[in-house]
């Protein structure tokens, strides 16, 4: 797992083995052994690798299997890859259990569907409404300031 993630992350970030080795303070040959699985880095080197790649140590040593895709690289720090979902004939999806638990989503809860040119987002309606109320209050305050 670690060796595969090191290769994938290095390629995603466009680094050579030599560039990563230099950033960590080791030889290119030592880094190549990590990618081949011949050796593994110590915890301090793993911490440095995670920092360079913008992920966590935990994510460095795990792989995420996604149905229909295979193994995917670790998500960047603060991001999650919950897996894939299928849309049924009615346009319904089932949100993966880990995502439901993480965000406290329950059956019957309403979500607002938002999008841009890159994708969609699902936001609990209470959070969306609260955010919209804040935006309206802010705009009202700005309008009042202009009138004075």
Keywords:
Pemi-like Protein 1, Chain: D; 4 strands; extended; two-stranded antiparallel sheet; alpha+beta; 434 Repressor (Amino-terminal Domain); 12% strand; 2 domains; 148 residues; single chain; two-stranded antiparallel ribbon; 7 helices
Describe it for me?
With about 150 residues, this protein is an alpha+beta fold. It folds into two domains: about 1-70, 434 Repressor (Amino-terminal Domain) (Orthogonal Bundle), CATH 1.10.260.40; about 90-148, Pemi-like Protein 1, Chain: D. Helices cover about 50% and strands about 10% of the residues. The chain has seven helices and four strands. Strands 1-2 form a two-stranded antiparallel sheet. It is extended, with a radius of gyration of 22 Å. The N and C termini lie far apart (about 65 Å). The model has no long low-confidence stretch (mean pLDDT about 85).
Structural class: alpha+beta
User: Uncertain segments of ≥5 residues (pLDDT<50)?
Assistant: none
Beta fraction: 5-15%
How far apart are the termini? 63 Å
| Shape descriptor | extended
Give me the count of strands.
4
- The total domain count is 2
Spell out the blueprint of helices and strands.
Blueprint (H helix, E strand, L loop, with lengths): L1 H12 L3 H8 L3 H9 L6 H11 L3 H5 L2 E3 L3 E3 L24 H7 L7 E6 L2 E6 H23 L1
Antiparallel strand pairs: 1-2, 3-4
Provide a short characterization of the protein structure:
By secondary structure, the protein is an alpha+beta fold.
């Amino acid at each position: 797992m670690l060796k595969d993630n090191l290769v994938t992350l290095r390629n995603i970030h466009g680094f050579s083995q030599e560039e990563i080795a230099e950033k960590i303070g080791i030889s290119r040959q030592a880094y190549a052994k990590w990618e081949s699985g011949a050796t593994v880095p110590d915890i301090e080197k793993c911490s440095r690798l995670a920092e360079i790649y913008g992920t966590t140590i935990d994510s460095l040593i795990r792989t995420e299997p996604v149905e229909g895709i295979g193994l995917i690289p670790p998500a960047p720090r603060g991001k999650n890859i919950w897996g894939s979902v299928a849309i049924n004939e009615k346009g319904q999806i089932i949100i993966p259990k880990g995502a439901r638990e993480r965000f406290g989503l329950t059956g019957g809860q309403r979500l607002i569907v938002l999008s841009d040119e890159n994708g969609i987002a699902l936001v609990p309606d209470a959070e969306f409404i609260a955010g919209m109320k804040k935006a309206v209050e802010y705009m009202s305050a700005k309008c009042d300031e202009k009138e004075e």
